[in-house]
Amino acid sequence: MPDPNCTICGGTGWRIVERAGLSGATRCDCQSHDRPQTLLADAKIPPNYRNATLENFNVPQDNPVARTGLGTVLMQVRAFVREYPSAERPGLLLVGDPGTGKTHLAVAALKALIERGHEGLFFDYQNLLDRIRSSYDAASGGTNKEVYGAALDTELLLLDDLGAHRVTDWVEDTVTAIITHRCNHKKPLIATTNLPIPQITGPAAEYSGSGGIATYRKLLQEMIGSRAHSRLFEMCRIVPMLGGQDYRMRHGR
């Protein structure tokens, strides 16, 4: 697949050459077989997830509920990759408790699309915001200053652990700006979150206080703001991790 941002061929995959006074078309170098490897290296996927694929996602066989639920989730993620880019909902949001495999699936989807020649970037949500904030410091390096632009403009952005940052007006405004820009320009977003979305997951009680009064976890909408939350519903397929159990605890025993 050609590079849609190639300045030589303009994303067509072909460039004009002159031979013996005649003009002709030849395949552009942006279609090199090395391109997926270069894109994968540039995606900044953490070492812990570099081997994650859709094929090695573990669907438990000893729990019928988890097997059915996570099997359905895997099929939905495969459909997202197969149908990419979808004009109607170009993004994917995986919602579920910690350790249920959200990041594995998100990275696996990103890698599958990179193998097809698409450009993408992985960002941990909290680290992204910290780096954007530090870029306002006049002494900060150029790399941090470029992070915000990359989050806006990369073809495919993966935001892991969306909402895992203390909410402030600055955080809400920054997240809204990134998500709104990507939504308006139809730039896909893959995201994961541990935070409940009542319309999808129902409310989540962390524990019951004295007298049996439930204390509910913060909602995604509360942590990123109503505008960004609404945009996510507009641009993403929202996939709950049905029947998921904590993978890390399961394999740590």
The whole-angstrom Rg is: 21 Å
Would you count the extended β strands for me? 9
In the sheet with the most strands, the strands line up as: 4-5-6-3-9
Q: What can be said about the biggest beta sheet? A: 5 strands, parallel
- The averaged pLDDT comes out at 85
Structural class: alpha/beta
Q: Enumerate the spans where pLDDT stays under 50 for 5 or more consecutive residues.
A: 248-253
Question: What is the N-to-C succession of helices and strands?
Answer: EEHHEHEHHEHEHEEHHEH
Q: Output the number of helix runs.
A: 10
**First and last CA, distance:** 44 Å
Specify the helix fraction band: 40-55%
Overall shape: globular
What percent of residues are in strands? 15-25%
Would you write up a description of this structure?
Helix content is 42%, strand content 17%. The chain is built from ten helices and nine strands. The strands form three sheets. It has a five-stranded parallel beta sheet with strand order 4-5-6-3-9, with helices on both faces. The longest helix has 20 residues, at 64-83. The radius of gyration is 21 Å and the shape is globular. The chain starts with 13 loop residues before the first strand and ends with a helix.
In short:
By secondary structure, the protein is of the alpha/beta class. It has helices at residues 35-42, 64-83, 102-115, 125-134, 142-153, 169-184, 198-201, 220-224, 226-235, 247-252, and strands at residues 14-19, 22-27, 91-95, 120-124, 156-160, 189-193, 205-208, 214-216, 236-240.
